[in-house]
Write a structure and sequence with these properties.
L-fuculose-1-phosphate Aldolase, alpha+beta, about 240 residues, seven-stranded antiparallel beta sheet
């Protein structure tokens, strides 16, 4: 094992612990992968809690998902990870988790696509929701391909989040940002008013992002009227006055 591989194994396990400690996964949920070389991937094993998985249990596969080294089997969601790597040459790590609030938004049919928080718009752009696919099924890769070409973070209908990055920590931090955004949106909706950012402010954020050379891919919704989610009804308006005003 090279030093690079040992470092990557350590980082991947660190992210697994963070996912479990922050309750972004439960029991044996979730999976993480990272590019070891241009033709080798490192995967978390199937059926092992992220609180307990060890560096030795991680599996090396080729780019088709065939096991090269390891005593266990890779995550059952391996096909979804492989689809991401096929679509994005710039991605070096993929994190799939089940953060409860963000997942609840998909169950309720409520989108996180509107541009509301400047930090989220700056780093992630809009956060779309995929169509539903049975977990670990052959349909899983199909519902993420088009979205992951344009975005670094997506919601999976009734199935959590998928975030990507240049390394495993960057992919994980995008997961944190999505769940934090979901929490803010939940509270704002309970308070009764969600105000989206004006279009010119979104454009300024994107211009600043380009000037600073921020990497990753972002997509903007069209005037924050796009649901970003199959079957969602209603829209979050750009402004909404309290009743009686």
């Amino acid at each position: 094992m090279t030093k690079h591989e040992s470092d990557l194994r350590r980082d991947l396990i660190h992210v697994c612990r963070l996912m479990y400690e922050n309750r972004f996964v439960a029991a044996t949920d979730g999976n993480v992968s990272a590019k070891l070389t241009d033709d080798r991937l490192l995967f978390t094993p199937s059926g092992v809690s992220k609180a307990l998985v060890t560096e030795e249990q991680l599996i090396v596969t080729d780019m088709a998902g065939r096991k090269v080294r390891g005593t266990q089997e890779p995550s059952s969601e391996i096909r979804m990870h492989l689809a991401v790597y096929e679509e994005r040459d710039d991605v070096r790590a993929v994190v799939h988790a089940h953060p409860p609030i963000a997942t609840a938004f998909t169950v309720a049919g409520v989108s996180l696509a509107p541009c509301v928080l400047p930090e989220v718009v700056f780093h992630l752009g809009t956060i779309p929701t995929s169509a539903y696919a049975t977990p670990a099924s052959p349909q899983g890769p199909g519902v993420v391909r088009d979205l992951i070409r344009k975005c670094d973070a997506i919601l999976l209908d009734r199935h959590g989040t998928l975030t990507v990055g240049e390394d495993v920590f960057k992919a994980y931090f995008k997961l944190e940002k999505v769940e934090n955004y979901a929490q803010v949106m939940l509270i704002a909706r309970q308070l009764g008013n969600v105000r989206t950012l004006p279009t010119d402010e979104v454009e300024r954020l994107m211009q600043t992002r380009r000037q600073l050379g921020i990497t990753g891919r972002v997509t903007m919704c069209m005037g924050c009227d796009v649901s970003g989610m199959p079957g969602e009804t209603g829209r979050i308006r750009r402004t909404r006055k309290p009743r009686g005003k």
